Amino acid sequence: MTLAPLTRPARLRPGARIAVVSPSGPVPADRLEAGLDVLRGWGLEPVEAPHVRQVHPGLDYLAGTDEERAGDLQRAWCDPSVDAVICARGGYGVQRMADLVDWAAMRAAGPKVFIGYSDITVLHEAFAQRVGLATLHGPMAGTETFLKDPDTQESLRATLFEPDTVRTLGLPTARALVPGRARGITYGGCVSLLAAELGTPHARTSARGGLLVIEDTTEDPYGIDRILTQLLRAGALDGVAGVVCGSWAGCGPYEKVRAVLADRLAPLGVPVVEELGFGHGPTALTLPLGVPAVLDAPADGAPATLTVEVPALR
């Protein structure tokens, strides 16, 4: 099966209500408050889910119980007064709650904007596979990068309100690891989560026609090798049109990470771009997932770009 464009939700307007949920780990209260202030400064009305500040009573790496986290997401999504849902942070825990969500009800509620990255990759895949919805791989309300980096904030703000102005993506660091040009449908996220989804009931079974976007954090180079090798051995990258790499914060010396990426990805025979500027790095550009895009990786060392053929939001 070839990847096809997904349904795009509507762009936001001043006064739009944006629900804040914690599907993974608990969020520090001071960061959450600061993030809510940023959203209010954009003219949005942030609405906290009931358990967004919760901590699991026995497993303190989770933001509340699986049922509470799943219920918060579903209630926010199915609330007709809510226009968008943004995650407070990543961490770990989405895989525990993803199958507790009523995805038929989510689909029936209609399209709206969904934002997150890291562990939230599991939800991006769920929205793509079970709802048919394009989503935003972007910064979360309670994370340091969102609070401290102006480029990160502006990338998300422009994508939400003026998506026509952010069609071409990429920091000056972006370069061809394998030069070339490719067109496909964007998908992906945190690569360790993509590998962890293999074998689950709703896992993606084809990369054909896709532009894979990947990044990760605190994985040693050999760990990235293992993750990519697992995806390759499972056939999960068969037919992929191109690969876009973001940040690898805390993954060891970048030259070692780069050697792994070249060794594992170059044999695919498709364009590969490195350091585009999304994920866990100091700047996290907002990347639309589920939309047609062109990857341009010049052989002459000029900056590489990812250009979406349609605005991220309608």
Outline the structure in words.
The chain is built from ten helices and 14 strands. It has helices spanning 29-41, 66-78, 94-97, 103-108, 121-131, 144-148, 150-161, 191-197, 221-233, 254-265, and strands at residues 17-21, 45-48, 84-87, 113-116, 135-137, 168-169, 175-178, 180-190, 210-215, 242-245, 272-274, 287-289, 292-297, 305-308. The strands form two sheets. Strands 6-14-13-8-9-10-11-7 form an eight-stranded mixed sheet. Strands 2-1-3-4-5-12 form a six-stranded mixed sheet, with helices on both faces. Strand 9, helix 9 (221-233) and strand 10 form a beta-alpha-beta unit. Helix 8 runs parallel beside helix 9 (221-233) and helix 9 runs parallel beside helix 10 (254-265).
How would you briefly describe this protein structure?
The protein is built from ten helices and 14 strands. The chain has 314 residues and is of the alpha/beta class. Helix 8 packs parallel to helix 9 and helix 9 packs parallel to helix 10 (254-265).
Which key terms come to mind for this protein?
six-stranded mixed sheet; eight-stranded mixed sheet; 10 helices; 14 strands; globular; 314 residues; alpha/beta
| Span of the ends, CA to CA | 26 Å
Largest sheet: 8 strands, mixed
Radius of gyration: 18 Å
Order of the strands making up the biggest sheet: 6-14-13-8-9-10-11-7
